[in-house]
Amino acid sequence: MDQQEFCPLGYLKEHKDGVTLMILNQPQDIDVTFMKQMWAKATLKATVDGGTNVLYDSVKADRDLYIPDLISGDFDSIRPEVSEFYKSKGVEIVSTPDQDYIDFAKALRLLISKSAQVEVIVALGAFGGRMDQVFANIDVLHQAQKLTSVPVVLASHCQMCVLLKQGMKHCLQVDTGHEGDWCGLIPVGRPCLHITTTGLKWNLDNQGMEFGQLISTSNALEGNGLVTIETDNDLLWCMEVKPDAE
């Protein structure tokens, strides 16, 4: 079985390079302080349709300091004055009208084609709001598996999730100091028949998980700084985040 090492909260490290930041259209899910912290770390920044309104409204007097590299979407949400402001700043604005995919998915394709130096893509504003949109954002993680080997993380100031690829042993480094109290493994998409873990309070030993049967929620880290997960199908890893390391 192939092995992959990954630090789920590596994007929070002080000197992390290769971060691409995306801002989605869920203003109630975006903590402005955290957004500014991630903006300072990112080498490439993009807003997705109404996510441009979120950026514009969040930074107010400092708008000239927060100019994205790319704005994309079908533009059914961005306000005219917001679009005009960033257009006047020379921002690349790309219309993606295809209604078979959500704006997040289309923006992801654009970003992947733009840079070969990306180590992680972090999307803010993926949680909260409408439940159908939350599931649509998780579906984009499944789509991303077919597009890139770069990890795509859905993040907020207090939680994150990432899709672990099937047929691999994932070695997760969980020693950044930003790890919170809870974590979970969710078989979103289809059942996982064989999962083995180490480093969790409640480990799995070649067990299956599916909705209507067993899923792993409210789990916790054992505290040794490493979690290993072997899975035969794609599996969603979720965890609590403490933005300020203690």
TrEMBL record:
The keyword Metal-binding does not apply. Its EC number is 2.7.6.2. Residues 177-235 form the Thiamin pyrophosphokinase thiamin-binding domain. One of its GO terms (molecular function) is ATP binding. GO terms for biological process: thiamine diphosphate biosynthetic process; thiamine metabolic process. GO terms for cellular component: cytosol. InterPro entries: Thi_PPkinase, Thiamin_pyrophosphokinase_euk, Thiamin_PyroPKinase_B1-bd, TPK_B1-bd_sf, TPK_catalytic, TPK_catalytic_sf. Catalyzes the phosphorylation of thiamine to thiamine pyrophosphate (TPP) utilizing UTP and therefore links the biosynthesis of TPP to pyrimidines metabolism. By producing thiamine pyrophosphate, a cofactor of the mitochondrial pyruvate dehydrogenase indirectly regulates pyruvate oxidation and lipogenesis. Although it can also catalyze thiamine phosphorylation using ATP and CTP in vitro, it does so with significantly lower efficiency and without physiological relevance evidence. PANTHER family: THIAMIN PYROPHOSPHOKINASE, THIAMIN PYROPHOSPHOKINASE 1. This is Thiamine pyrophosphokinase. It comes from Mizuhopecten yessoensis (Japanese scallop). The lineage of its organism: Eukaryota, Metazoa, Spiralia, Lophotrochozoa, Mollusca.
